[in-house]
């Protein structure tokens, strides 16, 4: 069974987001964002400027985002997942805030439902 990004496994669900969106937006505006190669590659392959798109999507979360769940990543961090309306598309974004490095670490950022 192929799971779309928006459908997090119920066992991994939490009752509320782990991170404050105001903090996420502030870090994004300060360009304190890193992403996986897969995320950057997907954005570039679809003709987006990866850095600017990540900043725009992350700073849109407070107004246009809908939290869809949180999950523990393979590295042990807890990531929040959102669907956010941006640039005439619904986007799926999954991230965590790395407290040691003080950056937003993005693990997914693509059109909602897109396989990447």
Describe this structure in words.
The protein has 116 residues and is an alpha+beta fold. It has one domain: YaeB-like fold. It is 28% helix and 34% strand. The chain has three helices and five strands, in the order H-E-H-H-E-E-E-E. It has helices spanning 21-29, 37-45, 50-64; strands spanning 33-35, 65-72, 78-86, 89-98, 103-111. The protein has a five-stranded mixed beta sheet with strand order 1-5-4-3-2. A hairpin with a 2-residue loop joins strand 3 and strand 4 (89-98). The protein is globular and about 30 Å long.
Secondary structure layout:
Elements: H1 21-29, E1 33-35, H2 37-45, H3 50-64, E2 65-72, E3 78-86, E4 89-98, E5 103-111
Parallel strand pairs: 1-5
Antiparallel strand pairs: 2-3, 3-4, 4-5
What is the succession of H and E elements? Answer: HEHHEEEE
Radius of gyration: 13 Å
CATH topology: YaeB-like fold
| Quaternary organization | single chain
Give helix % range.
25-40%
User: What shape does the CA trace take?
Assistant: globular
Give the terminus-to-terminus CA distance: 16 Å
What is the makeup of the main sheet?
5 strands, mixed
How are the strands ordered across the major sheet?
A: 1-5-4-3-2
In short:
The chain has 116 residues and is α+β, with helices and mostly antiparallel strands.
């Amino acid at each position: 069974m192929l799971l779309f990004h928006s459908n997090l496994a119920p066992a991994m669900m939490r009752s509320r987001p782990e991170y404050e969106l105001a903090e996420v937006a502030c870090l994004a505006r300060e360009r304190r964002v890193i992403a996986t190669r897969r995320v950057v590659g997907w954005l570039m392959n679809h003709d987006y400027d990866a850095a600017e798109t990540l900043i725009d999507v992350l700073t849109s979360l407070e107004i246009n985002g809908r939290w869809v769940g949180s999950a523990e990543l393979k590295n042990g961090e807890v990531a929040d997942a959102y669907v956010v309306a941006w640039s005439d598309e619904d986007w799926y974004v999954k991230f965590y805030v790395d407290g040691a490095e003080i950056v937003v670490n993005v693990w997914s950022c693509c059109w909602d439902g897109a396989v990447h």
